[in-house]
Write a structure and sequence with these properties.
By secondary structure, the protein is α+β, with helices and mostly antiparallel strands. It has a single domain (2-87), classed as Alpha-Beta Plaits (2-Layer Sandwich). Helix content is 47%, strand content 33%. It is built from three helices and four strands. The protein has helices spanning 17-28, 48-66, 78-87, and strands spanning 2-11, 34-37, 42-47, 69-77. Strands 2-3-1-4 form a four-stranded antiparallel beta sheet. A hairpin with a 4-residue loop joins strand 2 (34-37) and strand 3. Helix 1 packs antiparallel against helix 2 (48-66). The longest helix is centred in the middle third of the chain and has 19 residues, at 48-66. The radius of gyration is 14 Å and the shape is elongated. Residues 3-66 form the Thiamin/hydroxymethyl pyrimidine-binding YkoF putative domain. This is Thiamin/hydroxymethyl pyrimidine-binding YkoF putative domain-containing protein. InterPro entries: MTH1187/YkoF-like (IPR029756), Thiamin/HMP-bd_put_YkoF (IPR011522).
């Protein structure tokens, strides 16, 4: 099963750009997932288990390095999205 996660990171720190860029750069280092970034969020698409595993690892790493940070995420069944698009 494929999943698409739309995720945004809000580090609770004065220097907030570097932790966000670091998180995105680390996500882009995984060849097994697709990462698309826009101005307000990052879309991560791939195998459900792999995407969640990567996000768990990288979110924990962010919390360990930054301290307080808020992640906001939406999880979408990408298989269903593609099937719907094909039927329209």
């Amino acid at each position: 099963m494929q999943v698409m996660v739309e995720i945004s990171l809000y580090p609770l720190a004065e220097q907030f750009v570097e932790p966000i860029q670091s998180f995105i750069d680390r996500l882009n280092g995984y060849s097994e997932i697709d990462v698309q970034t826009n101005q307000t969020s990052t879309h991560v698409t791939g195998d459900y288990g792999k995407v969640l595993s990567v996000l768990a690892e990288e979110m924990q790493r962010t919390h360990e390095s930054v301290g307080q940070a808020i992640f906001v995420a939406k999880f979408l069944n990408f298989d269903a999205m593609q099937a719907r698009a094909e039927n329209n």
